[in-house]
Amino acid sequence: MDINAVSLLNNDYKVQPTAPKSASGVNGAVNEEGQTFGDVLKGVMNVVDQTNALQVNAQNEEIKFALGEADNTHDLMIAQKKALTALQYTVAVRDRFIQGYQEIMNMQI
Q1: How many CA atoms, within 13 angstroms, populate the side-chain half-sphere of residue 44?
Q2: Domain boundaries of the chain, sorted by first residue
Q3: pTM of the full structure
Q4: For residue range 76-99, what is the model confidence (pLDDT) as tens digits?
Q5: What is the largest CA-CA distance in the chain?
C-alpha cells in the first residue's frame, strides 16, 4: 500500500463547505464557511458512517486472517490502524461537540 493513502484518510473526514444559505429558517445560523448547523451535523453523521465502515472492514480482515484466507499481515494492520485512527477522530469530534453543548447550556440569559 502506498503511503499517500494515509494522507487521503484525513481528506475523508473534512466537512466540505457548501454554498451560503439565507439566514432564515430553522437552521438560520450560517458560519463563516457558509454552513448551517444542519450541514455540520450531516457532515458529522457522514464521519460516523465512514468510521463504522472502517471498523467493519478491520473486523473482516481479522476474520480472513484467523481463517487462513489471508496471510498478509500488512493488510490486517493497515485496516486496523485506519479503523483506530477513524475512531479516535470520531471520539475527538464527539468530545468537542459535547463541550460546545455544555458551554451553550451554561450561558447566562
Answers
A1: 16
A2: 4-105
A3: 0.62
A4: 999 999 999 999 999 998 899 899
A5: 62
